[in-house]
Amino acid sequence: MKKSLRIRRLVGEELNEGNFTMSSPAVIEFTNFPGGPETFELLIKFCYGINFEMTTLNVANLRCAAEFLEMIDEHGEENIITHTETFLSEIVFRSLDKTVEVLHSCEHVLSMAEEVKLVNRCIDVIASKIYHEQQKLSNRLQAEGNHSIPWNYNSTHLRELQSAILPTPNWNQDEDSTPVPHTINRRVKVDWWAEKLSLLRIDLYQRVFTAMKASGVRAESLAGSLMKYAESSLKHLHGQGNQGASVMMSAPFTTAIRLKTKHHLDINFGHNHKTIQQHEQRNVLETIISLLPTENNLFPISFLLSLLRDAIALDTTVACQLDLERRIGLQLERVTANDLLIPTLPSDTDDAMYDVDLVQRVLVNYLQQDENFKNEHNFSLNSDSDENGISLNYQKGIRKVTEVIVQYLAEIAADANLRAAKFAAIAEKLPSHFRAMDDGLYRAIDIFLKAHPYLTDVEKRKVCKLLDCQKLSREACFHAAQNERLPVEMLVKVLYCEQMRIRNALVEDESPHQEGSYNYGGYSLNKISNTGSPRMDTLSRLRQKNKFLKEEVAKLQVHIYQLLI
What is this structure's pTM? Predict the structure, then answer.
């Protein structure tokens, strides 16, 4: 009793009130005692001189309980507060591992740990040690003559310099591809300490992340830490088992709910367990999204798509979903058609199988980025640009996006509940001048018309007007001319384009400068083939080919005439 000012004061009050007798001793009851009965038992051992082990798992409880009982040195030489502070400064705060473990244990006694500033001290130590670890690694590499930090750098002499690959292959590679290091596909880097931080509750992790960012930790490492934390805390949403389903469902789960109820009064303990868990999952996901670094192209596209699917499933705020859509749009050229097949929620009023509106918004974000690119560069000519001043990388990216969206249209076209207006809305966004061939788009339109036999003529024309018949191959033109699902106007366009193609071929055949001849000084020199055939043999073969094409066009004309009748 002499080591605790609080117990001494409470006993004195009982004596003054006369409630304390030998036959009826007073009972002092502590509600919400920090650390519970186990910690109180350790304090009793300390008071009676019984040895016990102080560890990173109980030091936070002991420090908070000692503060609660006011066990300071003025009421006992080298009291428990002094012992815990010495243990923290000389053992815990010298190790990043141990500091994270102590911070994790503070979740059970958070209010008292905040009062003694133990949480803030742990966070500051973690952020400082991670920053200085990176500085140490950078200096060491510079001394060795390597000015860049490799993605898989490992040191057998210094554990703090270790790094690891995130064990989530579907976030960084396709199913059929070989594993690719993070910094080859993305600049994100997952350090060894990210595994430790993933044990923290979301509110504490958010504060650690903010402190690391403020101290100057690299954005690549911050992104890797976020990826690891998302993998750990949201893994139950990805079908990775129920045991230890999430950080929130562990021991501090109840505390996290109490913290949330201060700001979210709509949550109460009368809800079933599943509803409470969904609220916690949503809170974790929204916090992760809010912490995403602002740097573009930092995360693998598959990771952002995974977050977006979870955000839709958990019904997060519109701002969170729009932020993810914007980030995905910035690197849309890295997605595949299957990545964009995001199912609609059962509660949606739209009966379509896939969320087409979401893909349209992502595509708009990407095209807006390209528009900004063109405005900034003003189509200036340079070594990496074509004659129109458009960056070759820009052209490659937008062509890739166009191909992916065309494939996506073919995938969703078979959905009988997909409306023609939504199908056409996405196709209209595709820049036609970056589509070399329209065979893929024709295939998607044909699948859509086949799956929607009851479309009106107006809807058919709206869908088919997106097709450029001049960009159809000869095989596609032949198929389209016999396709009864196409409106008559489209059949006429196909026939006209085929006629123009034959006409242009005839003009080229009759041109004086043909393949097979050279022009030198105004004189035409015929090229003799390897078999010694003269130029007239080549012209004869071309005329035979043109005759065959004319016969096919005549057949198409007869077919169109029959349809018009």
Answer: 0.72
Give per-residue pLDDT as tens, 537-550. Answer: 666 766 676 677 67
Tokens of 175: 């199913």
Q: Rounded to the nearest 5°, which phi and psi values hold at 143?
A: -65, -30
Mean pLDDT of the chain: 75
* 328 vs 292: CA distance, rounded Å: 13
Q: State the Cα–Cα distance between residues 531 and 481, nearest whole angstrom.
A: 39
Answer for the pair 281, 151: CB distance below 8 angstroms, yes or no: no
- Tokens 């920090």 belong to 34
Q: Which residue is listed with tokens 């006629």? A: 499
Q: Go through 197-219 and write b for each residue having 16 or more CB atoms within 10 A of its CB, e for each that does not.
A: bbbbbbbbbbbbbebbeebebbe
Find, among 118, 102, 25, the residue nearest to 66 by Cα.
118
Q: 281 burial class (0-12, 13-18, 19+ CB within 10 angstroms)?
A: buried
Tokens linked to 526 = 């015929």
Nearest to residue 5, comparing CAs of 83, 77, 68, 78?
A: 68
Give strand ranges (E) for 239-314. none
Give the residues across from 525 on adjacent strands: 518
Counting DSSP H helices and E strands in the chain, the numbers are 23, 2
